[in-house]
Write a structure and sequence with these properties.
The structure is a homodimer. Chain A is α/β, with parallel strands linked by helices. Chain A is about 45% helix and about 15% strand. The first copy, chain A, has twelve helices and eight strands. In chain A, strands 1, 2, 3, 4, 5, 6, 7 and 8 form an eight-stranded mixed beta sheet that branches. In chain A, α3 links the parallel β1 and β2. In chain A, α10 runs antiparallel to α11. Chains A and B meet through β2, α4 and β3 of A and β2, α4 and β3 of B.
């Protein structure tokens, strides 16, 4: 959820390696995507004498969630290209916790790093957003991103009646859709320049599926509506101002499969004209790991104690940032505690249907 | 002083951008080396159609001290190679403060970044030490390092009677010299593989000059002897144990000009055989900026208040690390405060001759 290269400077994921520990679900998504990535590598038909294999992991947060998948990619490429040197370029926005990322990759974090198994790997870290060029033209073999590209460069407007575009209507929805289109094309155009011919992107992005499902809304309790209901309660009880309510608009857009596909299949699109082609797209739901565990253990407290931190890890900084800075920081922090406390209580009171199922579109893209 | 890729994991420079602010002298050294770097670029005779210019800044700490010099390099190369994309790879050890570094380079720190002036620059960050490969073979045009390569991979032994090899004698000195030789060759061999033919290194390294001068010992008060005298006082007063006294051995070696030159001029050396050649070497002293200012303002307190932080910024973590961990951290920190307090009082009592003049060897190396 929180793998991101954002938009707003002050949006940050949990740091210090806590992100990977708190977002087990985001890690599951990447683990399950590993086969797609390995198939993409297979399809490249790399020459045995390949000197350098360059890979991007865009919006990597602390890097913990993709360690296993990247290890598999290196292992696979080494089999075909025994002399290849690997540039693995991790990217995230400049306010990301790069200390946690660097230590994770260099084996000083909570997980084992693939660096212990391979000699020819050169990890590199970039703070250039995926909305910008990250490396030289014609240099990237494989681009990967998971659960990151829903973060817009900026929100096109604040929403009057909801915290997320999934609840937007009318003009506001149109504005978000336009921003989403521009930003998606910009990401693809930048990657198109960087990919070598035959290079591939595997992009695992939050989206809205054919049934209208999206993150935290798989026809149980709608997570985003719950965020909004509680935020609205805080407004009605005078705990936040109208301005603060409205300012809490997530700078995100969830594309549909059609929106994701359009620039890659429409011959009139500059993305298509740059040489990018859609190889495959499909949607998939990865169940909320905490709701799944709850089905087994049935302990409501345990469920709430595991579930609330996973949603906090990616949106706490945004709720906090919506509050007026004229209020002392300590009071703002107390209010945010109370906000998640209310959500926590709702889960305790009626746990059924809560959960953050992951709804992703899986895109395979080739540079011809 | 503290630009480093170290040896011991727990040696760290001051973080949060404080390093560049505290070590004005280290910044002066790089500013003064800028002409050497620009001459090295000139001598490369880069082709106008060069697609990528890749530069390493090794042991960059928070990146603040080299911002200006790197901006000049980009400006110079762009004139000759208007289409070049710049990979500027900053390297330091995994426990460096990469958050401060990333924010410094991306213009969120205390200084203006060259990123605001140039479009085609792709900063990359590496936590691979300069004792390891950092990037693929045959890919680097320019390697730079300042005030970093005196940090050994490990200390070969503890010193019984001093804190630094400049005070070592006999077997201990031999062991340090051997470690220094191995480590210097290892750095050069790794860089030799990465440099393109015609590529250059500009290495500004602490050393011992023809007159026997070295950092903080330009025939005024000897800084390292002062460190040792006070540490020894602490031993004699029972404030530290003999083990703690001995453990405080800096993992550093200061090469002479001959030692720096040998592997680059001896046809039997594997470094020479790999294609590295010495273009130029000379030593230079950059006066301690705080001692220089003191000559003008004459205010002893002001001098001591400026001078002590500059020495603390690079060795505080090492003194702290020498103390026995069975003692509570708070007490250890108090002892270290008291240690620098004693040094501070010495400066107040007799300021004349104190200062940390920088004695560097400036090496220009070419890959044939």
């Amino acid at each position: 959820m929180a793998r991101q290269t954002s938009a707003a400077q002050h949006i940050t994921m949990s740091g210090g390696g806590a992100y990977s520990l708190a977002t087990k679900g985001a890690g599951d998504v990447i683990t399950l995507a590993a086969d797609l990535v390995l198939n993409a590598v297979e399809a490249m038909k790399l020459p045995p004498e390949l000197p350098v294999f360059q890979m991007l992991d865009m919006g990597c947060a602390d890097g913990g969630t993709s360690l296993g998948m990247i290890g598999k990619v290196i292992e696979r490429v080494e089999k075909t290209c025994p002399d290849a040197v690997f540039n693995i370029i991790y990217t995230d926005q400049p306010r990301n916790d790069f200390n946690a990322l660097v230590q994770m990759i260099h084996g000083l974090g909570p997980f084992e790093s693939y660096l212990e198994r391979f000699q020819n790997v050169r990890p590199l870290f970039s703070a250039s957003s995926f909305y910008l060029p990250i490396c030289p033209p014609n240099s990237v073999n494989l681009g990967f991103s998971a659960t990151a590209m829903h973060w817009l460069r900026q929100k096109p407007c604040d929403l009057e009646n909801h915290v997320h575009m999934v609840g937007a209507t009318g003009d506001a929805l149109v504005k978000f859709a336009e921003q989403g289109k521009r930003d998606w094309e910009r990401i693809l155009l930048n990657r198109s320049k960087e990919l070598v011919s035959g290079g591939r992107l595997v992009l695992v992005n939050f989206g809205r599926d054919e049934e209208g499902r999206y993150l935290g809304n798989t026809f149980g309790v709608n997570m985003f509506d719950t965020f909004n209901e509680i935020w609205n309660e805080f407004l009605e009880n005078g705990r936040i101002s109208r301005e603060e309510y409205v300012r809490m608009t997530l700078p995100q857009y969830y594309n549909t499969v059609e929106e994701f596909s359009a620039p890659l299949t429409d011959p009139a699109s500059p993305v298509y004209q740059s040489g990018l082609r859609l190889v495959d797209v499909h949607t998939r739901i990865v169940p909320c790991p905490f709701a799944e565990e709850f089905k087994t253990h049935g302990n409501v407290k345990r469920f709430a104690n595991a579930y609330i931190p996973t949603i906090r890890s990616w949106n706490q900084s945004i709720f906090l940032g919506a509050l007026d800075e004229s209020c002392p920081l300590e009071e703002r922090q107390e209010l945010i505690e109370s906000y998640y406390g209310t959500y926590h209580q709702r889960v305790l009171d009626a746990p059924e249907g809560h959960g953050m199922d992951y709804v992703h579109a899986y895109l395979i893209v080739e540079k011809i």
